[in-house]
Design brief:
The complex is a heterodimer of chains A (113) and B (114). Helices cover 0% and strands 53% of the residues of chain A. With 113 residues, chain A is an all-beta fold. In chain A, the strands form 2 sheets. In chain A, strands 2, 4, 5, 9, 10 and 11 form a 6-stranded mixed sheet that branches. A 5-stranded antiparallel sheet of chain A has the order 1-3-8-7-6, with no helix packed on it. By secondary structure, chain B is mainly beta. Chain B is built from no helices and 11 strands. Classes of the chains: A mainly beta (113), B mainly beta (114).
């Protein structure tokens, strides 16, 4: 089964600064990869997904992620943070041929004015 | 535009009580899932239903049962609640059980067991 590692449980950035959230997966075979966002007292919303098309994936709200097979990584970035980006972010993976998602522990983003 | 609806939103139980969490989706999805979310652990799959009429155990099924009532509804039952089951429970659905299908989540049920 896949394992997912999100480096850093908390990230604090200034408004307008780069947001970088790290995600590494365990499989040697590229899986399906997702980033979800959770706002307080809400469910998870899909930000973007990688399913073996372009390695640079664009999502909603100005986020994008790059799949790097050699590094088994799928890091999430946003060039300029907004106050509304304060939330918890989850990386999730699913093996090809499987239909279960494995989630990382999550990274909480705080945006400073 | 409801998506995935969970009821109730909050519940407090005493140890040993039973409870059923309800979930319904209006997207005509085939697959449905129950997760629990605990601090620092992400989401862990309890049970899933790849299609109507089927259910399977996930990562943490002990102490839970599920019923796929029809294509829309998937319920989670705690027969004898324990404090270790204090958590936030999320229901999700996807169009098909393939791994490339994104899952759509409800807003969660916050459950406390005293």
């Amino acid at each position: 089964a896949q394992s997912v590692t999100q480096l850093g449980s908390h990230v604090s950035v200034s408004e307008g600064a780069l947001v970088l959230l790290r995600c590494n997966y365990s499989s040697s075979v590229p899986p399906y990869l997702f980033w979800y966002v959770q706002y307080p007292n809400q469910g998870l919303q899909l930000l973007l997904k990688y399913t073996s098309a372009a390695t640079l994936v664009k999502g909603i709200n100005g986020f994008e992620a790059e799949f790097k097979k050699s590094e088994t990584s799928f890091h999430l970035t946003k060039p300029s943070a907004h106050m509304s980006d304060a939330a918890e972010y989850f990386c999730a993976v699913s093996d090809r041929g499987d239909y279960k998602l494995s989630f990382g522990a999550g990274t909480t983003v705080t945006v400073r004015a | 535009n409801a998506g995935v609806t969970q009821t109730p939103k909050f519940q407090v139980l005493k140890t040993g009580q039973s409870m059923t969490l309800q979930c319904a989706q209006d997207m005509n999805h085939n697959s449905m899932y129950w997760y629990r979310q605990d601090p620092g652990m992400g989401l862990r799959l309890i049970y899933y239903s790849a299609s109507e009429g089927t259910t399977d155990k996930g990562e943490v099924p002990n102490g839970y049962n599920v019923s796929r009532l029809n294509k829309r509804e998937f319920s989670l039952r705690l027969e004898s609640a324990a404090p270790s089951q204090t958590s936030v429970y999320f229901c999700a659905s996807s169009a098909f059980p393939q791994g490339n299908q994104p899952q759509h989540f409800g807003d969660g049920t916050r459950l406390s067991i005293l």
